[in-house]
Structures are given as structure tokens and as C-alpha cells.
From TrEMBL:
This is Orotate phosphoribosyltransferase. GO terms for molecular function: magnesium ion binding; orotate phosphoribosyltransferase activity. Pathway: Pyrimidine metabolism; UMP biosynthesis via de novo pathway; UMP from orotate: step 1/2. Gene3D superfamilies: 3.40.50.2020.
Length: 213
């Protein structure tokens, strides 16, 4: 029987929300070359899989975080997922912009927070963790308590793991890069000879990028 990590990774590959191309790397906006491209927003267009993701998030929240008051989504990719999870759980919802607005009230957090609430943050993708933890900082400035974060997928970089540990933020992901590589091999998406190269990227993405420019 497939576990949640395997099922989510398999679904992301099937709908091409995640694509692997070890021989022809993708160019990220950051300038890095990568064998993987991830756009989890695509899952929103597949109702059954979208529900699977949100139900899995709720299972994590109910099993891990107690007395949750508010669900927060990180803009832009996790806003819809966070709103759906909040609706299914009957919880208030807020979302966090990447930066404060330069007009109106200048809000970075949109929605109602009075201070003191226990908040679970929903994220779609964890790469270095910096933007996700910046969203946490914005919430903390509102006087809330962060119960933790639940994300759909993580690249499993060591730097992101350390960043969350240093920030004392508990992170749970539904699936991850290592599981994705296993699924891709099992389903014939990649060949056995691709695995070593794909794992080298995860261990040192900067060096891998330079070697594959």
C-alpha cells in the first residue's frame, strides 16, 4: 500500500506539477540550473488530487498540532490550499504577502488576527526555507504563536532543514524530493543511471548548477 509521501509524489508527477529533466536542466529565476521544476498550483485544477492534498494536510494538523485557532497561507502558491484547509476545518484564514503593500493600510498579513492565536502555516513548496520563514516572521509581528508549518513538497536541502531548526519552527511536508526520485524510478519516468545525478543536485545544488550550465 502506498504511503502518503509516495502517493503525493506520484500524483505530482502524473499531473506534471513536478517535472524531472536531468539531461536538460531547467533554469530557475534565481539563475540556478536544476533537474527539477515544481509548480504545485497545477494540482488546484485536479479536484480529486486537490482534495487528497488538503485532507493529508488536515491529517497532519490534527495529529501534530493541538488547539489550532487560525490557518495561514503563504502567497501566492499556498493561498488557495490554506483557504480550502481552513474551510474544511471550520477555522479562520489569513494569508501572508511576500512584502507589505505600498498603499492603503500597508498590510503584509491579510485577514483578522487579534494576537495570541495559535497559527498553522500552509506552504506549497520548501526550497531554502527563507521565504517561508519570512512569512512566519510577519505573523509573529502580529503577536500570534506559530504552532508549525505544513507544506506539500520539499527539496530536502540541508540548508532548509537547518533554517527551520534554527528558527524553532516545526515543519511537516507531505512529500519530498528523495521520495519523488524513488517514485520516478519505480514508474519508469527516469532511468537507473539518472538517480546518482539527481541525488548529487540535492546534496549540492550550487555546484551541480555550475557543472551543468
Amino acid at each position: 500500500m502506498e504511503n502518503t509521501e509516495y502517493k503525493i509524489a506520484k500524483g505530482l508527477l502524473e499531473i506534471e506539477a513536478v517535472r524531472l529533466s536531468p539531461e536538460k536542466p531547467f533554469l530557475w529565476a534565481s539563475g540556478l540550473h536544476s533537474p527539477i521544476y515544481c509548480d504545485n498550483r497545477k494540482a488546484l485544477s485536479y479536484p480529486a488530487f486537490r482534495r487528497t492534498i488538503c485532507e493529508a494536510m488536515i491529517d497532519v494538523i490534527n495529529a501534530t498540532f493541538k488547539d489550532v485557532d487560525v490557518i495561514a497561507g503563504v502567497a501566492t502558491g499556498a493561498i488557495a490550499y490554506g483557504a480550502i484547509v481552513a474551510e474544511m476545518m471550520g477555522k479562520p484564514f489569513v494569508y501572508i504577502r511576500s512584502k507589505a503593500k505600498d498603499h492603503g493600510m500597508g498590510n503584509q498579513v491579510e485577514g483578522v488576527l487579534r494576537g495570541g492565536e495559535r497559527v498553522v502555516v500552509i506552504e506549497d513548496l520548501i526550497s531554502t526555507g527563507q521565504s517561508s520563514l519570512a512569512a512566519v516572521d510577519a505573523l509573529l509581528k502580529c503577536g500570534v504563536h506559530i504552532a508549525g508549518m505544513v507544506a506539500i513538497f520539499s527539496y530536502n536541502f540541508d540548508r532548509s532543514r537547518r533554517a527551520f531548526e534554527n528558527a524553532d519552527v516545526e515543519l511537516h511536508t507531505l512529500s519530498n524530493y528523495d521520495t519523488l526520485v524513488d517514485v520516478a524510478l519505480d514508474t519508469g519516468y527516469i532511468r537507473e543511471g539518472d538517480v546518482k545525478m539527481l541525488k548529487e543536485w540535492r546534496y549540492d545544488p550550487d555546484k551541480w548548477s555550475k557543472d551543468h550550465e
